[in-house]
Design brief:
The complex is a heterodimer of chains A (about 140) and B (about 140). With about 140 residues, chain A is an alpha+beta fold. Chain A is built from 3 helices and 8 strands, in the order ββββββαββαα. The chains are: A alpha+beta (about 140), B alpha+beta (about 140).
Chain lengths: ~140, ~140
């Protein structure tokens, strides 16, 4: 499932980033921007005990950095371009609120996406926990 | 969330009050597109039917549940039952959420915030579980 935010906004600010570029880094303070992937592939990386671990990959139609708008929290992971280039749309709080007001489907779609992600992460927790339990049993 | 804001949301969203012991949905129930938000009281979440039923979670005001119904059309994964003397719960389907989203998006914003903090908590838990798994593998010489 994906959300095409470009349907909701004309003139959404867009930037093209190159392979290896970090859009933001873990623990960066929020700059209030949320991003949508229009094209390309990005990796979400988190430092665990000082070592970088790739958590997941993002492609066209996916979004990231939404915590910056909704919670104003520090960036919880690093996001890097892994394709030759990536086209990203971004919104700040003002634009976000404007879309939310004028397009009822927008917030609803975003909520559904977050719920979907919770489901995916919970499935992964179950898998890892099961593997761990089996290992401890053996 | 302050009690005044909760009250505002109750008025805007509409809610149901269920008595102690009331089952909201059962594991295996056919899917509908309804999710719930707890305004007051406590809800127990149970897995396993009949004699093997086990409480797996306890929900408090500010929590939501049944949200997977918005995403997948799959049977309910758990049973939810009121464990406090009563519980006030918002019952939300797609139509209501869309209406809220257009008319008074604040509730939906808050729901999104809750959803995101739950996502963050789940990601943390996943990270810890994977670390444990990694350590266990290392300890056993598996790489």
């Amino acid at each position: 499932m994906s959300l095409n935010v470009f349907e909701y906004v004309n003139n959404l600010a867009v930037e093209i980033r190159r392979e290896g570029d970090a859009i933001f880094c873990q623990d960066d303070p929020s700059d209030g921007r949320m991003y949508f992937v229009a094209d390309g592939e990005l990796a979400v990386i988190r430092n665990i005990e000082g070592e970088p671990h790739e958590l997941n990959r993002l492609g066209a139609g996916q979004f990231f950095g939404e915590m910056a708008i909704l919670n104003g929290s520090d960036r919880s992971a690093t996001v890097k371009v892994v394709s030759k280039s990536a086209k990203l749309g971004f919104l700040d709080e003002t634009v976000f609120n404007k879309i939310a007001r004028t397009n009822p489907v927008f917030l609803y779609s975003l909520l559904k996406l977050v719920i979907q992600r919770i489901g995916n992460v919970e499935d992964e927790i179950d898998e890892a926990a099961e593997e761990l339990a089996n290992l401890r049993k053996s | 969330m302050s009690s005044r804001r909760i009250l505002e949301f109750v008025q805007r969203v509409g809610s149901e009050v269920y008595p102690a012991g009331h089952t909201i949905f059962r594991e295996g129930d056919a899917p509908d597109d309804t999710m719930y938000f707890v305004f007051s009281g406590e809800i127990g979440v149970y897995k396993g039917r009949g004699g093997s039923e086990q409480e797996i979670n306890r929900l408090k005001p500010g929590d939501f549940f049944g949200e997977m119904a918005l995403v997948h059309h799959r049977p309910r994964l758990a049973t939810t039952r009121v464990v406090s003397p009563e519980a006030r719960v918002a019952v939300m389907n797609k139509a209501l959420l869309l209406k809220l989203s257009g008319g008074s998006p604040q509730f939906l914003f808050n729901l999104l915030r809750y959803a995101i903090s739950r996502l963050l908590a789940a990601e943390d838990k996943l990270q810890h579980t994977r670390e444990d798994l990694q350590n266990e593998k290392r300890a056993r010489g598996i790489f």
